[in-house]
């Protein structure tokens, strides 16, 4: 029953976890989970929160035990799932991201690169200043974790070091621990943790549609934390142009089942006949 801990002690194969402390973050998590439920209707969704309440959007609401500043760390450690997809409260699901679970059959952790590689936080080091910039931080707002003794120990180290060192940001430490770890890391494409919206309008019909938007400005102020019963909608957050661009990406994303247009079909046919392909391209280049 939502609002109570499972009593059988058995883990579920896979599920999604949110974590929130503070009234506004809890409301945002409830809205984000409602949006996710629209694209993942059959997947268990749990919330770790600092207060008890009833919300049937979640399969289970767990009460946070610690007082740490990053409840995601406790949520990941205590997750009841063999394969966990953790999402920050400001992540909006546009399409089912379940394929992340498939990656966890081969990797221990999955996450997307931090978009802003030369930002002050991305440039921070904790103890090791020798890590090259090419080993980019992993954004901790979307993380896939396969449960094992090794990942349990890694998550415990991440949380313990974060609290012991009294750090403000968790990603520089996560980067350092991943650099020194033997865990297998799968790096997700940006479409699974899209933060920089100009990428949308700079793309074209060959780009994948975004599955998950990560929008930190959602938890600034009270505009998006007033009504927990409403799913988060891109239309209330993004511009009309951004929304129409997302719709266009979905209309042409073949990984989501979009059909190929005539130009793509013609190009595929020509590639099967190299001599004809060269002739057609030569004619095209002469007259364009």
UniProtKB/TrEMBL annotation:
Keywords: Transferase. One of its GO terms (molecular function) is transferase activity. InterPro entries: Nucl-diP-sugar_transferase, Nucleotide-diphossugar_trans. Residues 85-193 form the Nucleotide-diphospho-sugar transferase domain. Gene3D superfamilies: Spore Coat Polysaccharide Biosynthesis Protein SpsA, Chain A (3.90.550.10). It holds the Pfam family Nucleotid_trans. This is Nucleotide-diphospho-sugar transferase. It comes from Palleronia aestuarii.
């Amino acid at each position: 029953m939502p609002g109570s801990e499972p009593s059988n002690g058995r883990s579920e194969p896979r599920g999604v976890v949110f974590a929130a402390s503070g009234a506004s973050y809890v409301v945002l998590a409830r809205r984000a989970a409602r949006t996710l439920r629209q694209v993942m209707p059959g997947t268990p969704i749990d919330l770790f929160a600092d207060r008890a309440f009833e919300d049937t959007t979640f399969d289970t609401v767990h009460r946070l035990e610690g007082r740490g500043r990053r409840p995601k760390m406790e949520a990941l450690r205590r997750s009841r799932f063999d394969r966990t997809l953790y999402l920050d409260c400001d992540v909006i699901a546009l399409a089912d991201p379940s394929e992340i679970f498939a990656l966890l059959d081969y990797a221990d952790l999955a996450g997307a690169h931090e978009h802003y590689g030369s930002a002050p936080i991305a440039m921070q080091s904790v103890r090791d200043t020798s890590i090259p910039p090419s080993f980019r931080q992993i954004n901790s707002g979307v993380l896939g974790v396969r449960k094992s003794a090794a990942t349990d120990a890694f998550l415990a180290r991440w949380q313990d070091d974060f609290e012991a060192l009294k750090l403000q940001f968790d990603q520089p430490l996560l980067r350092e621990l991943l650099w020194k770890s033997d865990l297998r890391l799968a790096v997700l494409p940006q479409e699974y943790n899209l933060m920089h919206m100009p990428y949308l309008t700079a793309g074209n019909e060959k780009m994948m549609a975004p599955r998950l938007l990560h929008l930190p400005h959602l938890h600034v102020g009270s505009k998006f934390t007033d009504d927990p019963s409403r799913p988060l909608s891109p239309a209330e957050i993004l511009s009309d142009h951004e929304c129409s661009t997302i719709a266009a990406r979905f209309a042409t994303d073949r990984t989501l089942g979009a059909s190929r247009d005539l130009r793509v079909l013609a190009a595929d046919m020509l590639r099967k006949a190299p001599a004809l392909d060269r002739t057609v391209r030569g004619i095209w280049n002469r007259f364009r």
